[in-house]
C-alpha cells in the first residue's frame, strides 16, 4: 500500500517557477537550467522506480515516498523511498544517471563517465548507509520494533553501466527492473514477522506528521535576486509573460489565448519564489494589475488562511513547507 505517494519536491516546483520567470538572457539562466534538468531527471527516475514497486504485494509492502525526517541530533535525513514490511525495512536511494558508473565507496565517490566527460559525486551507497543509521536512530527514539534495515541504491536509467564493480557494489546496487528479485531475496532472509498492523498504523501516522520538506530556495542556491524574477501573468498556452487583464479574463497578445484562471499559477509562483504570505499590494505588483478590488476578489476566491487585520491583511500561501495553493488547471 502506498502510504505516501510521490509528488514533485517543493525544490523542483520552485525550480520550475524559476525556469518560467527567469529571462534566457540572464547570465544565471544556464546554471538554473542545468540545476532544473538534474532535479527533473531525479524525479523522472523515481517515477520509473514506482512502476516496478507497483508489482510488490500491496498488502505486505507499505511505501513511503520522498520523506524527510529529523534524527535525535536534529539532523535531517531524506529517503527517496522507504518500504516497510512485517519482516524488514528497505531504504531505496534512487539515481537516474546515464553513462559508465564506478562506485568507489572506499573513497566515498561515484565517478560517472559520459561522452568523455568525467563527473564525481558523493557515493550513493554511503548516502544510503547514512540514511540507515539515521532511520535506526529515529525508529529507536520512537520505540518501534527493531527489524533489520536494508538499503539499496537503485539505478533508474537503462543507459547506465556499472564498471569496475566488486562484489560489495553488486550487492548494494540494483537496476530498477530488478526490485522484485531483490525483495524476494530479502523475504527469504527475514521470515519472522516483527511488525504488527498496530505498529504500522503508528509508524505511518508519525512519518506523515514529522515529514518536513526541504524549504531551501533555488534563488538562494543560484544567487538569483528577487528583482531578476519576471512579474506578470504567464500565458498557459505560449508561456509568454505578461498577459493583459481584459474584463474578467487574461488575454495574451502573442497567441490570442484568453484565460479566466491564469492568475492562480502566478500566485503559486509567488508562493514558491517570493514568500509564504501575500498582501493585496504584493499580489497587484506581481500580477502587474492596477485594480485593488480585482486583486481582493482573486485572493478571497482562493480560500487561503488570513493573517492580520483588514488594514494589513495577508494571505497564507505556504504552511509547514507545504503549498496551500494547488496547481491550476492552466485553463
Ligand atoms: Zn500566449
TrEMBL record:
Domain NERD: from-to ranges: 41-158
Species whose genome carries this gene: Sutcliffiella tianshenii
Name recorded for this polypeptide: NERD domain-containing protein
PROSITE patterns named in the record: NERD (PS50965)
Source taxonomy: Bacteria, Bacillati, Bacillota, Bacilli, Bacillales
